[in-house]
Amino acid sequence: MKKFLTALAAVLAIGLASVTNSWAEEKPADTAAPAAAADSAAPAAAEAPADAAAEAPKLDSGSTAWMMTATVLVILMTIPGLALFYGGLVRQKNMLSVLMQVFVTFSVLSVVWVAAGYSLAFTEGSNFIGGLEKAFLSGVTPDSLQGVIPEYVFITFQLTFAAITPALIIGGFAERIKFSAVLLFMVLWMLAVYVPVAHWVWGGGFLADDGAKDFAGGTVVHINAGIAALVGCLVLGKRIGYGREAMPPHSLTMTMIGASMLWVGWFGFNVGSELAADGTAGLVLVNTQVATAAAVLGWMFAEWIFRGKPSMLGAASGAVAGLVAVTPACGFIGPMGGILLGLIAGVLCFWAVTTLKGLFGYDDSLDVFGVHGIGGIIGAILTGVLMAPGLGGVGYPEGITMGAQLWIQTKSVLITIVWSGVVSFILYKIVDMIVGLRVTEDKEREGLDITEHGETAYHS
Amino acid sequence: MKLVTAIIKPFKLDEVREALSAIGVQGITVTEVKGFGRQKGHTELYRGAEYVVDFLPKVKIEAAIKSEMLDQVIEAIEKSANTGKIGDGKIFVFDLDQVVRIRTGETGADAL
Questions:
Q1: Model's pTM, two decimal places?
Q2: Looking at beta carbons, which residues of chain B come within 8 Å of A369?
Q3: Does the beta carbon of A52 lie under 8 angstroms from any beta carbon of chain B?
């Protein structure tokens, strides 16, 4: 009864606040920064004071239609792409728990994003964090623009990023975490980790000012989630029986389906990050495809050589590793650089999930750190190399050498690692104090589907 | 009456079934099982985790028969399930105390 009343109170409070805010006196519609969509250095820049000499951009229906489509593609990446990719990798008794955690994380963060996340990430604020002027999307109207697309479209597109990033972390503590802990942790993490980093890189914060190049979110999404998953698996501890009992994936068919949806949907993720349908978007399209394909081959051949057989899981994992690595790089490198990047990411991530994991013995159940963390780091740093014009890239900003850019990239990676690592750790501890993180041993043995959700995935 | 249980390789099921039908065994029960004898298992690899799987898939056939047919049944199964390689399986024979046909209530040899 107490739980029900608390939940009801929370829902009413959010509902009341959001409705009140949107009826508040409308502020003059913010026109988007005239920084053209072709400025690939900061594709999702926050609104800056309008440059008096430049013309205010107008709505471009081609770009708008594309961005709406890109948004939907990224939604598909989460539900059911990521859900199935992860779901197939766990044991049958935990399938529904993974599907549920992804599905509901996606839902709750959609609400929290428009309530507070968007404003904190993408309004000017300080170099560190945005403000709350657009909490509950206050002041945004159907006519508001962000670049050449409606602001509502931009908000929703960014929503999909803010929702999938925390969902990635689920892989680190799968098969042993309480559902209530996931819900609470996800909300806190998005606000305390994702939003600040998004602000630093895309929202007018200090990493963008430093010149860090992260086209679609190598740091904001992948390193962030990868580190949080690593910390999570260490805080929660290994699954019962890890290393002794057999825990093979229960359905690599589902995993392949999920991986394929991720591959296809990622075009919305990467290409959509240009926020317009233009030439750079075309470059991102081809880079996303060839880097991923190369990574599949890299992982597969590494596995074939070092482990004896090329596996479906290896190919699917290679694809995701390539997609992750090309995420920060896709708008800055050339296609041949993309192929090289993919090959390297495929091989190194294979090494990370086999050798590195074995060395340290952590139970990162679904290899979030090995693929997203390591892949993101590789991509972020190699962006600094492969953007060189001699290597087919778009070239460096005025006055910046490869070395200087590499240092900026490395700095942004390190800052992200430290921020995500430290804050995630604190949040895990807080959640542990409030609801407890891990289920009991009996429940873990029986399976989360029955104990947390009262359901069985399959009945044969 | 006897209960004959045979563990065979799964792909041999159709042959064994036909061989038993040919000598007049009307009904059998089939279960999918796992097991090993002298046949080695295999290794499965999932990213970094290597699993040695000792258990191999097999099929268990059970047939309730009249005692007089025992030698014929054993010969039929043996011949049809044989490949000559390790892992062909085994036949177990149990004494069967009682058999009842549920629909009619017939017992003993009439129920077979």
A1: 0.85
A2: none
A3: no
Identity of the residue numbered A8: L
CA distances from A141 to A29, A31, A47, A265, B78 (A): 7, 11, 15, 28, 80
Alpha-carbon distance of A423 to A324, in angstroms, equals 23
Interhelix angle for A151-169 vs A252-272, to 10°?
A: 140
Between CA B74 and CA B87 the distance in angstroms is 17
Element (DSSP H or E) covering residue A335: helix A335-351
Q: What share of chain B is helix, strand, coil (3-state, %, to 5)?
A: 30, 40, 35
Map tokens 């495929």 to a residue.
A346
pLDDT of A279 strictly over 50: yes
Q: What pLDDT score does A54 carry?
A: 53
Q: What is the pLDDT of residue A10?
A: 67
> How far is it, in rounded angstroms, from Cα A9 to Cα B91?
68
| C-alpha pair distances (Å), A2 with each of A9, A361, B75 | 11, 41, 71
Per cent of chain A over pLDDT 90 is: 85
Which residues from A are below 8 Å from B44, CB to CB? 248
pLDDT in tens, B14-52: 999 999 999 999 899 999 999 988 888 788 888 878 888
Strand partners, A355: none
Measured between alpha carbons, how far apart are the two ends of chain B, in Å? 9
Q: Give the pLDDT score at A14.
A: 67
Q: Report the pLDDT value the prediction gives residue B38, as an integer from 0 to 100.
A: 83
- Give the tens place of pLDDT for each residue, B50-106: 888 888 999 999 999 999 999 999 999 999 999 999 999 999 999 999 999 999 999
Mean pLDDT, residues A170-196 taken together: 98
Strand partners, B49: B46
Residue A56 pLDDT greater than 50, yes or no: yes
Which among A308, A309, A358 has CB closest to B48?
Answer: A358
The reported pLDDT for the residue numbered A25 is 41
- Phi and psi, residue A34, nearest 5°: -75, -5
CB pairs A-B closer than 8 Å: 26
Residue by residue, DSSP assigns A253-321 as: HHHHHHHHHHHHHHHHHHHHTT-SSSHHHHHHHHHHHHHHHHHHHHHHHHHHHHHSS--HHHHHHHHHH
Please tell me the CATH code under which domain A60-453 is placed. 1.10.3430.10
Q: Are A293 and A322 in contact (CB under 8 A)?
A: yes
Determine whether the interchain pair B48/A314 forms a contact, defined as Cβ–Cβ distance below 8 Å: no
Taking the Cβ of residue A311 and every Cβ of chain B, the question of whether any pair is shorter than 8 Å is answered with yes
The rounded distance, in Å, linking the Cα atoms of A455 and A451 is 8
For an interface test with A, give the residue of B47, B51, B53, B55 to mutate (most A CBs within 10 A).
Answer: B47
From chain A, the residues in CB contact with B42 under 8 A are none
d(CA B86, CA A98): 41
The domain segmentation of chain A, as residue ranges, is 60-453
